[in-house]
Records
---
Amino acid sequence: MSGRSIREAGFTLVELIVALFIFGIISAASVALLTFSVDSQAASREALAEMSAIRRVNAALTNDLMQIAPRPTRDAAGERQDAFFGGDGRTSDLLVSFVRRGWTNYDGEARSSLQKVDYRLVDGRLERSAYPHVDGAEALPPAVLLSGVESVTLRYRIEGEWRDRWDPTRPDLLPQAVEMVVTIEDMGPVRQLFQTGARIGL
């Protein structure tokens, strides 16, 4: 057989090895690209979930603080509480506690439209608790707004200045604004600023 006849009969061993090598490179690149795409989608879903949780915190606090009421309360033991409690985020799991207006009464129960709410940092979870009654009641089961929280720091604006602690001179005194910096695992600090419905100007 001539050289041309041998070439037309099929691939040589060298040609087959080269073809398999190229196919292997293409396959490896395709697998790497697919893996990258899957990882990117997972990371995007996680980031979107974290952003949704941050927006949920912002919406809850904005809604509550804009309807804040200068209403001192009594706890389950009957002890008198100021209208607003504001922690520093380090010395207690209780961050803020206050009474808000506008609690919708869908069931027509014999209760007021005022509602006491707490925000706490418990085991890396930012939680919101509400009370069935303003005075003398235990909190209802909390709603988890955000997980993976490493720390929370708070500041309060009153009389034109920011304070790291809330030390009211009157039991019915309310802050004009609240700053919350939440440090989230794998994300870092997120600063949020909330204006309250206190009836005094900034």
---
Amino acid sequence: MQVLFVTLRVKPDKIDDFLELVQYNHQNTRQEPGNLRFDVLRSQDDPARFALYEVYRTPDDVSVHQQTAHYARWKSTIDGLLAEPRHRAMFTTLLPPDGGW
């Protein structure tokens, strides 16, 4: 399993725009056969801080995701909504074996 963990800090006056964009990206990504999870998290301490937890079956599924129209919209729009650069880290599931799905 391939796991992406993305942290974002959104400009306070752009939160509504961000929520609309992330909902669009979430809904479309969840329809991809290789996507197993797409969680959108919001900090309890800072309402402008968000995280995305995305799980894909294989590295190829991540690549397929990055070729979609909804990802292109995300990529072309997200930086204008952020107060600081986003941080992305990619992980491979160790335990439970095969992600336990």
---
Amino acid sequence: MKKIFLFAFLLLGIWGCDKKYDNVVDDSTNSYQVKSLASLGTVLFSAKDSSVTASVEFSSVENVVSVSYSLYSPDNVLIEEGELYDNGKAANGDAAAGDKIFSNKFLMSQYDANGDYQLKYFVVDKDQNTKMVATQKFLYNNLQSNKAPVLSDLVMADTVIYILPNGKYDPFSFSVKATDPNGASDVANVYFTIYRPDGTVINHGGDTLIAMNDSGDLSDYGDATAGDGRYSYLMTFTENAQLGSYKYQFVAMDRYGLKSNIITHTLYLK
């Protein structure tokens, strides 16, 4: 991810038509100034051409070495970054070389989640300072009907045994695969609920729904690879836990509240 060394100025909440900016310049770096951003508004997926043109215009480019963008998902996750060019090439969506308008195209997929995406624009100046100079949001619609996520391929032990030499239960991990017809980013959460042998539900931190993790956090969650769609959890039983059969129920939810199929697994504690 691009590191931001110094903020020169921000253009926040930009929507709709082009707009001129004339009072947001940092006086300490007045060798360039953002003049306008290309209109984006709502972007609809198109099988013929689903490209989006990011474009920023400067009033002056005396101190500009390069211009770039970063694209963030509705979950504020960096999903793409690239250079912007003032080269007049149609492949970059740039109309004319040397007109102080820097542009480039990126593609949106039918599997990209619906929602508000954010573009951040950066300039590298002659002193090699990198500064974020503007932000812009656009609403994306993939034109796909929303469908529920799907859980599969649960990897979990059937039995956990009290280790007498250690005098405790050893930690154990388990994981489940979560996919979504509308794209991986549409999966909001993967949860599980545990029922004790006596039928009561385990309350964890005030909630009976325990969240799993796909961040690559191996030490705390037992998750080996971030972003692979396999959600994991690392847990252990206390010494006074009830012995017998524990029922685990796993479910995923998408960002619109649709729930997946439920996977039920029995773990025997002895």
